[in-house]
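U., I forgot to send this yesterday:
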Amino acid sequence: MQEVQFIDDNAGRFYMFSVEGQLPPDIVGAMEFVNNAGQYAKGRSPFIADDSRFLTIAAIDNEQTAKFYLPNGAVDNPTSENLDIVFTLLQINSSNQKIFTLASTLFTVYISAPPRLDKVEWLRPLISMCMTVVHADGRVMPEEIRIVKDYLSTVFEFDNIDLRNLKDAMKAPLFVDINELASKVMHRLPNKDPFDMLQLLADISKCDGEIHPKEVEVIRELAVAMGMNPSIWSEVQSTLDLFPDGGTGRSEGVGDVSYASVVGACEVLNVNVEVSKGEMMAAYRRLASDYHPDRVASLPKEFQEVAHQKMTDINAAYDILKKL
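Result:
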């Protein structure tokens, strides 16, 4: 590992760790902090391991760089001070989920001590992106607002203060520049799968039972701004099942999906079979976030195995619901 670079903005700090040399497959970077007493710094959710210490994990990209965004307050340090970053390269064996440490390096940085982690300020660009789709058809529906709230409160573990702040943030003026908005989202969430965000936007469009052409166009523009090649939009649109007037109704059999298989998928996702497809997809995202390998990497082996099996069942349920 060669160096760390960082860029500060009004909500936090963006870190980039450069890695040299030939890397084996299934490598991730883990970032922790050690204080002046030699103790691991505590974290605030969702930046915590099972023992409450700060931990965040990132993929190594094609440029052999691990990118992290730490919102102010992610590290629960009582005083502003210099902390040592512990950056570790980990290899995860995909067959048995065992974790091996390949290398570790220390960097010293100054960390301030804000009173709390302001998740709404951190996620403001993502909130604005969601609201851009909500407003695209000229009306704001309660179902759309609920999808956004449920997603943020579950995936990012919002508390009551965050939810109150979210209400104001959802009323804020929207970004006019789609490219700037997408850039800010990718900067604040460098390891978030863009397709996962497109699924969220598609669910917002579908949840009121009507897919409006203007919603589809906004989602397409955001997809391109996040790096999608425009030539594959038809494939992405088909995967998202994002066609105007497509409907969300279900019958005893839809295409090659039986009603019994839909019932089974809903049981895995812990939702009623009568809910909308958008609500099913929201339930899938919540569970997928809870049982994702990155979220359980620090847990004992037996818990990782349970999470792996649960994730397999969740993905199987999702494959069924995609065909509706």
